Amino acid sequence: MDRVRCLTPKGIGEFGRYLKELRIQGELPPPRALLTDDACSVPSALGDVWVEPRNFASRRDFAEYINNRFVDAGVFVNADEPGMWEWLSLYYFDEACPPNNQGFRKPGVEGRHLLRDQDARRRHRHLLRSPYLLYRKYEGGPNGELDLLLSYALPVHGVAATHIGERSRLLTSPGALVAASRLYFDLVAKKPRLGYSNEENGLRAYCKFVNNLPECFDVSGLSADTVIGLLPQGFEIWMADSLDEHGRETRNLTRQLASVEMTSQFAVAEHLDDLLQDIHERRVTERQATVRSDLFRAAVVGAYDSTCAVSGLGLRHTIGTDSTRHEVEAAHIIPVSQGGRDRVQNGLALNRTIHWAFDQGMLWVDSNFRVSVAGEVEKDERNHWLKQFLNRPLKLPANTRHRPHPDALHWHAKNVAASAATTGSN
C-alpha cells in the first residue's frame, strides 16, 4: 500500500504538461515518478491515509473505497487538500484514463484530472473528487440520491454529472436527485434507462424544468414525490413503472396527487367551513402528507413573494451560483391539528421567529388586517421586540384571492391568541 501525498505546484505543472502531450501522442506512459519525488509531491497533512492499486466497477465503487480509506485514517471531514486529488488522479490514472485495445489513452479535458479551474460549476468535473464529495454529502445515497450520478464507470463523467452537476439547485436537493433516479435509472440493470438522454423529456429536460421552478419552490426541501408530481405531461412516459424499489405505489399516482393538491391550494373559500376539515381526514399516507406540505409552502410563500407578512422582511440566501433559499415559512392560520386545510387563504408567510410567536398566540391579525400583540409581550422584556409590530398593517398578497380569510383570522384570534391583557388591539 502507498501513503497518500499531494502534488506540489511543480508536480501539478508536470502532470498538466503530460496530459497536454498525451492528447497529441496518445501513448505516453504516466509520469508516476511524480508521486514520490519530493520536489513534486509532499506527504498529506491529513495523516497516514493508505491506498492501493485496484480496479473500480463504477464511480460509486471508487467513492466508497476512498471514503473508507479516509475514515480508517481518522479523517471524518471532507478530504479536500490542495494537490491531493491531482496526486490520486495520477496514482489511479490507469482507472481514470485507461488505455484502449491499441494502447491509446484519451484524457479528455484537463478538469477531469486537475483542479485548476476555480469556478465551482466546473470543478465538479474532476473524475475522483466529485463522486467522493457526493458520496460524503449524501452518506452513500441510501434513498437513491446518487444512483444516476455514480452509476457510470470511473472514466466517464456522464450525462447526469454534466446536467445535474452544473446546477447547484438540483445538486443540493435530495428530493430532486431521488426523483431523477426514479425516472431515469434502471434498478435491475443498475444503469441509466434506455433513452434517458433524449431532448424532449429526458434528463436534460428534467433538469431544466426543475432548475427553472419559481423561487418560492425551495427545491432543496421538496420531496421526490412532489418533484415528480410537478412535472409536465411529457414526462409521463417515464412514470409508467408500477413500483419503485421499496414497493411504493404507482409513480403516476404521485402526479395525480400533486395535481389535485396544487389545485386545492388555490381554491377560494367562501365560508369558514371551506377552510376546515374533520381531523380524521388528515389520516393520509406519509407520501400524501409530504406532497401537501411541500405544495402548501410553495403556494403561500409564492403568494407573499417570499416575504414575511408581518415584518416585511424576506431573507434570501444564494447557495453556489444558481440556488436560492428563503428564510420565510408558510404558517397555517388554523393549525392542521385543529382541522385547518392546506389552502392559501389559511396561510401566512412568516419568518421563523414570528411564525413561532404566531403559533403561540403572542400575536395575531385583527379584522382590519392589522397586527395585535398579547399582554405578555409588554410584561417580559425579552418579548419587547414584538411591540414594534403592534397595529402594523399586514403585507397582503397582490392577488386578492390569496389573501387570508377573515374567518380564519378570527378563529385564530379566538382560539389560539392570548386574548387576556392584550396591548392596544383594535
Task: Walk me through this protein's architecture.
- There is one protein chain.
- This protein is mainly alpha-helical.
- The protein is 35% helix and 8% strand.
- The protein has helices at residues 9-25, 59-72, 84-91, 93-96, 120-123, 129-137, 158-165, 168-171, 174-184, 203-211, 224-230, 251-265, 286-303, 352-359, 375-379, 406-415; strands spanning 2-3, 5-7, 41-43, 50-51, 185-186, 191-192, 316-319, 323-326, 329-332, 347-350, 363-365, 371-373.
- A two-stranded antiparallel ribbon has the order 1-4. A two-stranded antiparallel ribbon has the order 2-3. It has a two-stranded antiparallel sheet with strand order 5-6.
- Strand 11 (363-365) and strand 12 form a beta hairpin.
- The longest helix is centred in the last third of the chain and has 18 residues, at 286-303.
